[in-house]
Write a structure and sequence with these properties.
By secondary structure, the chain is an alpha+beta fold. It has a single domain, classed as Glutaredoxin (3-Layer(aba) Sandwich), CATH 3.40.30. 56% of the residues lie in helices and 12% in strands. It contains 9 helices and 4 strands. Strand 1, helix 5 and strand 2 form a beta-alpha-beta unit. Helix 2 crosses helix 3 and helix 3 packs parallel to helix 5. It is globular. The chain starts with a helix and ends in a 6-residue tail after the last helix.
């Protein structure tokens, strides 16, 4: 595991470099990932616009800010993603925004299809679901926690629908996009602060 994470970290890029990569892909009518279908290219174009919007509009409450700023342990957030992923377009900008509020958090991005061993080590219910955040202790390299592929409320929303209908429909996926737009990243921020609080209980006192 240690060597897998180290190799992925060596290939990782900053959030700004990731955003620049996605913009370049849009200009070149392409996408990240092993498949370069027209559908995935279209999703990358849509997601570039989504991320651009979220980069400008994400708001963090004072209560959440206080918790984020109180976290003292030097960590790295290694995020597995792809440009075509709809959930990632809503989530990754929020992850980055939170990381920017604390100098102890280093934010790094890797692509799923370029890091298959890393993805296989952090499956969700046996699937290669993204985005996936892996929180690493900078001093020991240990995995402290993970987040993703969706925030808690969206996960419950998806699980209820799957239980009733067996699979996600295009209409449901559209509804899920509306949920992200209405929630404005707040559930993600709450989940992240809960994660920080579990590691350092004094953060929430």
């Amino acid at each position: 595991m240690d060597i897998i994470i180290k190799n992925s970290l060596d290939k990782s890029i900053s959030y700004q470099d990731y955003r620049n990569l996605v913009k370049q892909l849009v200009e070149n009518n392409s996408t990240t990932g092993n498949e370069k279908t027209e559908a995935l290219i279209s999703y990358t174009k849509l997601n570039d616009r989504r991320m651009k919007r979220w980069d400008k509009t994400i708001k963090v409450t004072k209560e959440a800010l206080n918790k984020i700023e109180s976290f003292k342990e030097p960590v790295t957030w290694l995020v597995i993603t792809e440009s075509w992923c709809g959930d990632a377009a809503h989530i990754v900008p929020v992850l980055n925004k939170v990381s920017e509020l604390n100098d102890n958090i280093t934010f790094k991005v890797v692509l799923r299809d370029e890091n298959p061993e890393l993805m296989d080590a952090f499956l969700t219910n046996g699937g290669k679901a993204i985005p996936k955040l892996i929180m690493l202790d900078n001093n020991t390299g240990d995995v402290l926690s993970t987040f993703g592929p969706r925030p808690s409320e969206a996960t419950n929303y998806v699980n209820r629908f799957k239980a009733m209908h067996g699979k996600l429909t295009p209409e449901f996926k559209e509804d899920l996009q509306h949920w992200y737009n209405i929630n404005k990243g707040q559930n993600i921020i709450d989940d992240l602060t809960d994660m920080l609080c579990e590691l350092e209980p004094n953060v929430c006192q």
